[in-house]
Amino acid sequence: MRTCLLVLLWASLSLYLDAMSITRRIVVEMGEMEGEEEEEDRDGGKGGKLLKRFKRGWMWNQFFLQEEYTGSDKQYIGKLQSDMDRGDGTLKYILSGDGAGDIFTIDENNGDLHANKRLDREDKAYYTLRATVVNKNTGMKLEPETEFIVKLHDINDNEPIFTKELYTVSVPERSNMGTSVTQVTATDADDSMYGNSAKLRYSISQGHPYFSVEPDTGIIRTALGPGEMDREKREHYQVVIEAKDMAGQRGGLTGTTMVNITLTDVNDNPPRFSQSIYQFSVPESMKVGTPVGRIKAVDKDLGKNAEMFYNVVGGDGLDMFDVITDKDSQEGIITVGKPLDYEKTRSYTLEIQVQNTQILDTRFLGYLPTKDMATVRIGIEDVDEPPLFERASYVMEVKEDAAVGTAVGSVRAMDPDGYNSPVRYSIDRRTDLDRLFNVHSGNGSIFITRPLDREEAAWHNISVIATEFNKPLQTSRVPVYIRLLDVNDNAPTFASFYETFVCEKTKAGQKIQTVSAVDADDPAGGHKFFFSLATEGAYRGNFTVRDNGDNTAGVLTRRSSYSRLHKSVYLVPVVITDGDFPMQSSTGTLTVRVCTCDREGNMELCNAEAQTSSAGLSTGALVAILLCVIILLMIVVLFAALKKQKKKEPLIISKEDVRDNVVSYNDEGGGEEDTQAFDIGALRNPEAIEESKQRRDIIPSDTLYPPLRRTAIPSRDNADVRDFINQRVQDNDNNPTAPPYDSLATYAYEGTGSVAESLSSLGSASSEGDQDYNYLSDWGPRFRKLADMYGAEDSDCDS
Prior knowledge:
Layout: H1 2-47, E1 53-54, E2 62-66, E3 75-79, E4 91-97, E5 104-106, E6 112-115, E7 126-135, E8 146-153, E9 161-162, E10 166-172, E11 180-183, E12 186-187, E13 201-206, E14 211-213, E15 219-222, E16 236-244, E17 254-264, E18 272-273, E19 277-283, E20 291-298, E21 308-314, E22 321-325, E23 331-336, E24 347-356, E25 372-381, E26 388-389, E27 394-399, E28 407-410, E29 413-414, E30 423-427, E31 437-439, E32 445-448, E33 459-468, E34 475-485, E35 493-494, E36 499-503, E37 511-518, E38 529-533, E39 543-547, E40 552-557, E41 569-578, E42 585-597, E43 603-605, H2 608-615, H3 619-644, H4 680-684, H5 721-733, H6 781-798
Parallel strand pairs: 2-8, 10-17, 19-25, 27-34, 36-42
Antiparallel strand pairs: 3-6, 4-7, 5-6, 7-8, 9-12, 11-15, 13-16, 14-15, 16-17, 18-20, 20-23, 21-24, 22-23, 24-25, 26-29, 28-32, 30-33, 31-32, 33-34, 35-37, 37-40, 38-41, 39-40, 41-42, 42-43
Function: Cadherins are calcium-dependent cell adhesion proteins. They preferentially interact with themselves in a homophilic manner in connecting cells; cadherins may thus contribute to the sorting of heterogeneous cell types.
Main location: membrane
Membrane topology: Single-pass type I membrane protein
C-alpha cells in the first residue's frame, strides 16, 4: 500500500513540473512575440515595414523591509530579475529613485537589492524606486524603466504621546456620579494597520476614587456622588492618566499626562451672620443718610453665589433706619433714615435679615434655613442742639403798598433740648442789603421797614437766624420767601415814542398811525387799555382816535386837506386808561407832521424842522464826533507842552569844556574799612600787580595768554600818571586776545606829584590839624574860597 502511494506522489509531481515548464515557455514566447510586435510597430511607423512586437517580463512587483534593522551587514531586500537575463553576464541592472545609491544599492550583475542604512518607518513608510536593464557592451536599454515600491514593516518602537502635557479643566461641584469632565487623547506613531503597535488603552494611575477614565475613549468621569464632591471641602484634584499601546497588553509602551481638575462653585451655602447681636450708638445730631455701623454675614460660596443683600424686617427702628449692601465687601451698612431725637426716643432695636441674591440650590441644605437673622441695638446720645424751626422754609405775601411797620408774618423756633432755652431772632443782612424788613427778636414777627415796590422786585428772599440766649454759638437759620402782591399804582404809557406824518392832500378817516401801550403793573386778569382823545384842544377837529379793542388804537384824520405853510406840526394828546382798580391813566403825545406827498401817498417834502430832524445825525453819532474832537484837543495840548519843555544840558559837553561841573554819583562807598570793594594795596603799589593777569571779558585759554613783557613800572616817587597810562595802553594794544570791540581796562593807579598827596588817613604822614590849605589860593579864584573855608575852620579849632 505504501508503495502505491509513493508512485502516485511521484506521478503527480512529474505532471506539475511539466505543466510549470510549459507555462513558463508560453510566457516567454508571448513576451518575445509582444516585443517583436512592438518593434514592428515602431519600424512600421518609420519605414513602413511590419515588425514584431516585443513585451518584457519582470518577475517582481514590490518588496518589504523591516524597520530599525540592527544587524552589522547590509540588509537583503530581494532580487530583481529580467526575463532577458540569460546568466551570461551581458546585462547590467541600474537603480534610481528615492535613496538610490545612498540608502539602496543593487548588484548590477545579478540584480540583488540591499539596504545600506537603518530605516525608520515613522520617518518614511515606503520608498519608490525605478530599475532598468542595459547592455554592458553597447549601453543600450534593453527594457524601459519600471517603478517598484519598498515598504517598511512596522515594529512597536514608539510610545503613546498625549496631545497635551497638562490638561486644566473644571466640573461643577455636587455633580452626579459619571458626569463627564473632559476627554484626553493620545497618539502612537506606529502603524495602526499592522499589529497592535498603535492600539491604545487608557487607565487612571492617580485620582482614585474620585474620578475614572474610559479605556477606549479617554473620557474622564466623576466616580463619586454629589455628597462627596463638595468644593467647600476640597476644590482641586490632580489626576494622572496613562495610555498604553499593544492594546494594554504586557510589553506595551506607556505615555502619561496630568489633568488638573477644579470643582466650580454652585450656590449650595446660605449666608450666615458671624454674631447674632450687634450694638451701636450714635449722636442725635447725625444727619439723614449718615452711616451708623456695619454688620457682616459670611457665605462659603464664591463670586455671584456669595453675593447677598440685607433688609430691615422688624423692630421699633424699622422706619428710623435703613440698611444698604456694600457691593465690594458684602457688608450691611446701617444708615440714619429719619432725624433722631434723644428727647423722644433714646434707643432702637432692628431685626435685619440677610439672604443670597442668586437662587439657592436647596437639594443639599436639608432642613437648614436659606436666610439668617440678626438683632441690632442702636443707642441715641444726647447732643446740645441749636434751635429748631417749626418749618423748613416759610412763604409769606404782602401788598406792595403796605405801610412801613406792617407785619408780613412770623417764624417760630424752639430749643429741642430739655433746657428749653429762650430764642432770639435776627435777619441775616447779607440776604437783605436794602434793609427792607426786620424781625422782632422775641416773637419772630417779620415787618416792613421801608416802602416796597413790586415793579422793582417781586420776590424777596431773606434768612432768619435763631440764636439761644444762653449759648450764642447755637444758631440755626431758615429761608423766608416774601412775595409782593401787585397794586395798580402805575399808569399805562405809550409802548414807544410815536411820530408820523400826514399828506397835505388826503381824505377824512385816513389812518395815519397805530399806537399801543404798556403798564408796569401785573393785574391778575391781564392788561386792558382804553384809548381816547383829550377832552379839550383845537386838535379835535383835525384828528380822532379809534380804540381797536385789543389794547391798540388807530389815529385817523378828520379833514381832507392840511396846509404845511399854515401849520406844519400837530401834537395830538391821547389819553390811555387801564381797566384795573383804582383806575390809572396818562396822556401820551403823538407828533404829526404835515408833508407834501405824491399821488401814491409817499412823502416828498416836509417842513424845515422835519427835514433837519430826518437828515440830522443820531445821538450816538454826535457823541462819537464829540469824543474825537476832545481827543484831538488833548493831543494838541500835550504836543505843545512837550515843545515848551526845556532840554537838560549834559554834564560835560565836550572834552574842551573845562568849566566846573558838579557830578553826583550817589554812592558813599564803604570807606577805608571796606576791603572787599578794592585792593588798596594795589593802588599804592602798582609794582605788586601780576605780570600776567587774565581778562574777564573772554574765556581763559593757556594758548591765548603768552607772557607779556613789561618794562618796570616807575615808582610813585619818580613816575608820572601819563607814563603809567601809556604803558597800560601799550600792553592792551599788544595783547593778542583783545576783542575787536570796546572793553573796560582798569588801571588802578593814582599817580604822583599831587601836593595834597594821599587823602587816606592810613598813608597820611600828618594829622588833619597839620594841613596847610594856603596853597589852594594859588589855583585860581574858585579854589581861593575853598582855602578860606578850611583856613577858617583851622582858626576856629585853634581858638
